[in-house]
Structures are given as structure tokens and as C-alpha cells.
Amino acid sequence: MFARTRNRPIRNFCMSRHANSHLEQRKPVQLPRLPVPDLSKTLTKYLASLEPLLQEESLRTGVPYAQAYAFRAKWAEEFSHGVGKVCQERLKALDRASPNNWLDDNFWLKSYLDWRAPLVLNSNWWMIFCDDQHGSVPSAEPGFTNWQLRRTAWLTHRILELKDKIDNQEVYPDTSRTGIWFRESVYKIFNVCRIPRQISDTLSSPPPPDDILSQYVTVIANNWFYALRVYTRRFELIPASEILERMAAIARDAFVRGQGPMIGALSADDRDIWAKNLSHLLSLNPQNEKIHQAIVRSLFSVTLDSQTHALSESEAKSRSTSPVASTSQSQVSLDAHLHSVRSVPSNVSNRFFDKPITLIVDPSGQAGVMGEHSPCDALVPSMVGEYAVVQCVPDDFGVDTNVNAQAEAKDVDPQTRTEGDDWYRLDWITDSHVLSECVEAKKRAELVIADSDNSVLWFEDYGGDWIKSVGLSPDVFIQLAMQLAWFRTHPNENRFTATYETALTRLFHKGRTETIRTLTTDSRRWVLGMEDASMSPQAKHSLLFRAHRTHTTLTREAMTGRGIDRHLFGLRNMLTAKEQSGVNSDNQSNNSSGSGTGIELFTDPLFMKSADWRLSTSGLSAGLLFKGTGFGARCEDGYGINYLAGPSMIKFGIESKFSHHNTSTEGFKRAIVGALRDMHVLCVEVGVSDVRSKL
């Protein structure tokens, strides 16, 4: 998205005073409300999404496709005239009573906050930045380095600089649709935090503007927590040099103290367990409530790792011999950096996973961000990250900063520091129970991490520019490549699987996401055609373009509030307890005769299978400033795949589970590379002239 610069103004973001004064004369754009989709159209699209699964079921079971489809069509018809019609009216009434829209005010956030799985490798996303122009500086000994602190302070200042520009309408003004969407979204990652609760978590509300705690960032170093003030009492952002000076003082203090209690590991635990442990922790002393509030209300968190993570010998060997290893970047160093930001056993206690964005920098200066997913989607922090990293650290910035264990003479005794100072300790009061739970939480987190088969793939044969040159969308092209890769890695069973792709509904007020169901009748037909040696290249190419058109239509519908998954989700949530008991009834789940109410739409096993996202995928930007990105697989026998379609390269971040015999990240990487190369051969073989005739 942005060209890398050395301390030059960023044209993409900066605006002149004349432009800014012109904005003041324009009215803010009002985004429309997210609509409640038409019920009959949703059901028609839903039935269409079942077709490829029904075709596979027919081959597997022998039940005629037409018969199986007729049952679903009957249930959809009964639903539209029965309980579905009632639920649709309830949903419309809820929308009228909702300040923003029916989905985000009531259901969507709850779907995240009800999930009890640990945030690490489940809800949280991660991104690794490209190295600064100065590169990374290996650190032989554990501890903090001058270069680490320089880059941390600079990136921290850049993030806050962007926030100030947004506050002042210098960038992303509210006179454009993109500006409105980004402003609404980006404020959800600052000064807020997920808070564990039994059964369902909550999100904190932003503190009032004059709250002194809102002027700090939380810094974690050697497991110790600190508050670092980044604004003056007049709410002015302090210079990067002052942030560096305060960061260095914190690093010196943390280094002298050694490793602190592993409180951060508690936030990596099962949400109910973390809720219980936090409740106990807060009950020990009022000081702990103050500490937690300081973290919750802080702008964001910053983590200083004291070690640069390295892969184990076996991990390194497997990557160095991989046939799909990156040629321009060490695969070993790529994955080591990715894992470090995602979290590894050595640093999982040096995190607070509940914050929506955490900047992480290791002693070598390698940096990235990790964050909790519920407040907003990863595109927003990725845009913040791009702004932070696009401008390199100045050559002379902080080169003389002292980071050794000897405190400087001007350092104030840390024990006398308190709220309102430029930095102060956030030292939890603990007991034996808390310390024991920290150990157990870390063990459980280590098991989750150990099961993660996570790697970056840099596909360097071609990128988005070539794909567009043959008349295809890079996003759709990549999605179809993943369909082909799945088929080739599952030759015997589950040859096709329900696939989730994220679509943003940012055209609407408070819009977030919708699902694009990538698996379609046309994508299935194209995949089968690619594996049919008797089919001509021209026929395969025609199937490719047909699948491309279908996917493009689904994308457009999802982005304009006409998707189906959020609507079906809302309709199901409109069922009463009595109606819901019918959905959960095992007796009804296999009822093929139909009771006439339409509830069979939800009790049908295929309803769940059609949303069993073994392929959970999402694309971000071109990713020129990221080495890689990632999020966890949604299903234990599936993959979580994030991709960055650059002009000349495509980067994939792929996560699966070692514990499941049907998945292998390395195997899927090979399959993606093979699919992309075969698609290239196909398009070249058919020729550009044939492509133009299809446009």
C-alpha cells in the first residue's frame, strides 16, 4: 500500500493545511444502515451454496442429488412461510430498536465474546513487519538492546502520530466513506480491552478524554508490567526521543529485576479459567484493580522481548529442506519471527492477550503486532501497522541511549513513581494460588502452541499484476487456487469443504464482515476439470472464468449487505427457547419427512456442514511492508489462511494442527504452489486473446 521511506512526509497520509481547511467546509458523510436481507433471496442463495456439498454426498451415499435437494427446497419453503417468516419480522423489529444495526448491536460481538477457547492461536491474529533499513541486529545474550528500544520507541510514536492525525481529521476525514469506516474502526483498538467473564466476556468502554490513564501505553518487559506516559497534561503527544528515554528507563528497571511473575500467561488461558483467576487476583488487594484498569484503559500495549526466538533444530531442518521454501528470505528466520509474534513458550508470559493491539519487538529489532479480534477486524490494525513501519528509524535517533543494567543518575527510584509520572511500575500483588495458576496456565498455553503447525509461504513466481493481466481478480484467483489445493490434499474423503472468506461491509454504518462461501457449483466443476486429463485447456479455462464470475458476484453481494451467513445467524438467534429446543433436538435432526414448520432448515446436518469452515481464509493488503501474517485454524482438521497479494509476489500465512492426521501446513503449502503454477500454465497456454474474448 505504501512505499518505504526514510523520514519523508508520507503522501498517502499527509494533507496540506489548505486541504484540511477545505474539509471543515464539507459535511461528514453519512453511511447507510446495514439492511436486513430479503428472506426469500437468502434462502435461494443458501440452497445454491448447498449444491456442491449435495453433489458430493450423492457420490458418497448413493442418494440421488435431486431427491436430497428437493428435501432442502421443501424445508426452505416451509421456513419462509412458517417460523422463518416470524423470525424475519422479529429481526426487523430488533433492527428498528437498535441504535446502529440489527447485527453488530446484538449478535456479532457476542459470537466472539462467548467463545471460551484461549485467545492465543484462536481469536488473536498476528502480523510481522519487514525489517527496518538498518536490518536486524542479532543479540548474542538475553536482554534488551539499544536498537530494540530505538525501533520500539519510533514505532510507538508513529502509531500515536497516526491516531492524532485521525483525531484532527488530517487523514481519513469523515467526509469520505473510507474515512468514516476507518475512524469508527480504529478507535475500537485504542484505550479498550477484552475482559474475561464467566460464560461470556465483555469489552471495556473507552475512558473519558480527560482520564489520565488514557494517556499511557502499557509496557511489558521480563513479565513485569509498566505504564508509560506518551501525552503531556495538555494532551500533546511527546516527542519520540522522550518515549525512547522513558522506554529505556523501563528496560533498565526490568533488566535489574530479572523475570517477574507470569501474570501474562493467565490471559492466554481458557476464558472461564482466566475469569476465575482474574477475579481472585483483583480480590487480593485494591492495588490489583488499579493495575488492571491501567492496562484496560491504556492506549495499547508494547512488549519488549528479552530473547530473539530461534526454531528448534528439527523445525529448522524441515524448513531448510522444504521444496517450497522462500528463495529471497530465509524460511527459518521467517517462521521464527512469525512464531515469536504469535507467541512461543519463552515469551507467552510476556504478553497480555486481551488488548486489541500489542506492538512486539525483540532484541534484534524484529517487530510485529498481535491483537485480540473482537473489537475490529485485522485490516484495521494492519493499516495502522503499515503507517508505523513505512517510515524507517532515523539514522541518528537515540544512538547513544543507555540500556545496560546500570541505572542512569537521572533515573528516579522506581518504587516512588506513581500514576501521573512519566512511567511507573504496575506490580501485581500475588499469593501462592495466583503463582501456581500462572505455572499451570503457562503449561496449558504451551500445549496449545506446541500443536500449532504455522508457517509463511512466499510464492514468488508471480503476483497480482500478472493475474490482472490475464483478466482475473487476484483475490478470486487465490481463492480458487486454495480450492484446488484442498482437493489435491484430500483425494479420498471430504474432497471439497465449506470455505469461509471474509468480506468487509464497510459501506455501512458500523459494518464489519460477511461471509463469502467460496465453494460453489462452478468452483467445484472447475476443480474437477483441472484434474480431468481428457478435458481441453480451453474448456478448463472457460470453467475458470465461470467460477471467477460466480465468486465475483458472491463477493459483491456480501459487501453490499446481501450475504447469507449473518442473516441466517440472526434468524436463528430470533428463535424462542421453545423453538430453539427443536433445533437442538436429536430426534428432529434426522427427520426427512418435515413437520411443516421449516425448523428442519436448521436441524439438517448439512446446515452445520455448510458452515464448518475447514478452510477459513482472509486477504489483507498487498503486504509490501509485512513479512507475513496469520490466524488460527477454525477447525481442528482445517486451515487458517491469511494472504497478501502483492504486485509480484503472494504471501500466505498458514496455520493448522499437528495433532490432526488430515492436515499438514507443509503439504498444503506445496499444494498451493502446485495449484498456482498449474493455473499459470493454463492461462498462458490458452493465451491472452482467448482471455479478452471472455471479458
Automatic annotation (TrEMBL):
Q: Which GO terms describe its molecular function?
A: acyltransferase activity
Using the record's annotation, list all stretches that form the Choline/carnitine acyltransferase domain: 34-672
Entry-linked Pfam families:
Carn_acyltransf (PF00755)
Is the keyword Acyltransferase assigned to this protein? yes
Asked whether the UniProt record includes Acyltransferase among its keywords, one would answer: yes
**Entries under InterPro entries matching the protein:** Carn_acyl_trans, CAT-like_dom_sf, Cho/carn_acyl_trans, Cho/carn_acyl_trans_2
- Any idea which UniProt keywords this protein has? Acyltransferase, Transferase
Instruction: Give the annotated active site.
Output: 373
Coiled coil segments of this chain: none
Q: Which domain of life is it from?
A: Eukaryota
Family, per the entry? Belongs to the carnitine/choline acetyltransferase family.
What is the protein's given name? Choline/carnitine acyltransferase domain-containing protein
Q: Which organism is this entry from? A: Tetrapyrgos nigripes
Lineage of the organism: Eukaryota, Fungi, Dikarya, Basidiomycota, Agaricomycotina
